[in-house]
Amino acid sequence: MNPIFADLPTTVFEVMSQMARETGAINLGQGFPDDPGPLDVRQKAAEAVVSGWNQYPPMMGLPELRQAVADHYRHHQGLTIDPQQEVMITSGATEALAGALFSLIKPGDEVVLFQPMYDAYLPLVRRAGGVPRFVTLRPPHWRFTEEDLAAVFSDRTRVVLLNNPLNPAASVFPREDLDLLGRFCAKFGATVVSDEVWEHVMFDGQKHLSVLAVPSLRERSVKIGSAGKIFSLTGWKVGFVVAAPAIMKVLSKAHQFLTFTTPPNLQAAVAYGLAKDDAYFADMRAELQRARDLFHAGLDAAGFQVLPSAATYFINVDLASAGITDDVAFCKALVRDHGVAAIPVSAFYAETPVTSVVRFCFAKKDETLTGALDRLSQVFAKAA
């Protein structure tokens, strides 16, 4: 068996979820919302599966969805995209990531990764034959410097894998960081694979800045989006890939031999959803921001050092000030002793991890969050 996958341990996500199931704990570990998603979008999918086309759709995606993706990004992010040559639909963002990495990496190529990172990144890079080079980000700002990039870029660097907004840090890389990255990529001839699935889940009035809006990165980047994150429909697995034609030509070949296509009824519903008026997207962000603020205030009142949450479904606490430096042991005790499941952020590092930060998902109903806060209020009270 392939050791890259055969030797992978059980993920901490499954460990914590299993503990939550066994103990009846409130599970704030897994990153999915309680909300079922917009009714009108779900109804469009139902109508399309009953009355629409259910055979193979075009490999690159339904034309109306590819056009909707281009229109959506023009309206919301100011991007000019050719739907015929620069847009492809995939079966979720993870397939898009896999296809991009398999397309762009040759065995022995070096790949720059920013940790903490989504857990699929490293196995996919290694399966493609890439050699990982890590930039380690640390709280509270989770930023990288010119010195960080100089330490990992070389003449063998071919791909940079970026997640912006960043899960699990719940942070956003500013324009100056993307400009800095663009200068290094231009100097060394590297391509950026930019996981931007959280592009609509940003708070406090922030606007998403895609790598495609950075001139030095426009022709050397792959932008990946997700309908699952935009519409809180994580089970649908409909992803968007946008790249310059020369890159897309190769990406499409990998997609052809991974999933080939994506359910046409879901594509039709997503095309409808992407054209929804601005109020939907504003209301979605406002509701999540309200839940974030409720949970932040409760954590703060319970004595946790809460880190900023600028985006995503997540909020982190840093336990270092409480003298706690083993986030895995803390999370296991939290489930066992207090009935709340969270995720240790050290699980998102491949080396030299931060071991004092714990991630909670706040994209839940108020009663779930307040129930968890009641239990969390006892963590430091009992310790005292």
UniProtKB/TrEMBL annotation:
This is aspartate transaminase. Residues 25-376 form the Aminotransferase class I/classII large domain. Its EC number is 2.6.1.1. One of its GO terms (molecular function) is L-aspartate:2-oxoglutarate aminotransferase activity. Belongs to the class-I pyridoxal-phosphate-dependent aminotransferase family. One of its GO terms (cellular component) is cytoplasm. Its cofactor is pyridoxal 5'-phosphate. The keyword Transferase applies. The keyword Transferase applies. Keywords: Aminotransferase, Pyridoxal phosphate, Transferase. It catalyses: L-aspartate + 2-oxoglutarate = oxaloacetate + L-glutamate. SUPFAM superfamilies: PLP-dependent transferases. CDD domains: AAT_like (cd00609). Homodimer. Pfam families: Aminotran_1_2. It comes from Phreatobacter oligotrophus. NCBIfam families: PRK08912.1.
